[in-house]
Give the backbone structure.
Amino acid sequence: MDDEQLLRYSRQILLPQVGIEGQERLRDSHALVVGVGGLGGPAALYLAAAGVGRLTIADPDRVELSNLQRQIALRTADLGRPKVEAARATLRALNPLVEVRALADRLAGAALRACVADADVVLDASDNFATRFDVNCACVDTGTPLVSGAAIRMEGQVAVFHARRGAGPCYRCLYMEQGTEEETCSETGVFAPLVGVIGSLQAAEALRILTGAAAPLQDRLLVVDLAHAQWRTLRIARDPGCPVCGEPG
Ligand SMILES: [Zn+2]
């Protein structure tokens, strides 16, 4: 790292949990952020600020006025633009040392798998179960750590999975019933700072993983209730019959 990089990241390098070695690991890392709205925006901003060398952001949506109450990587001037283009501009302005690849698609199938295989960590910041299940499958298939986040109304959750076939738990162990009781922020509302709290926690867990440390929320579900300022952590049990991470055959 040159002097400018040492100065830019100096307050983080001072941390015994990071140091020069951890900072160099971040520089050499690639994070995939799926969804760049309420959760993915702050998560990607912190990953970029902290010096993760390569970021891939994927989101099929365009910026709408109702996004701007909470999706802080987007700007009013971005209305109508693809979210990934708007977010890439914000991220590059924050830290031009970070390479940002923007995919204006809903990642699925082989493209998703290739992207996940190329990443050192995946942050699921999407807003629907179909994407969440697809991302989880790709992470289990490739053995890539997954930092999952969700937020609605005044409550959110974060969990980290590092599953392989036969060695769960994975996200699917937590939510077996695909597509049931799906709620959306457009129907029920969402509190602006909640997505910042959850997205920031996702960034924290991802940075722990990328610097080579343990992620405190691995195989645990942190539930954050901002209506009562209460946080609780539950252990996630592996489901031996899970169709994604269960034993083959
Ligand atoms: Zn599973």
Q: What stands out?
A: The beta strands are 30-34, 54-58, 99-103, 121-124, 146-152, 155-161, 220-225, 230-235. Residues 192-210 form the longest helix (19 residues). The chain has ten helices and eight strands.
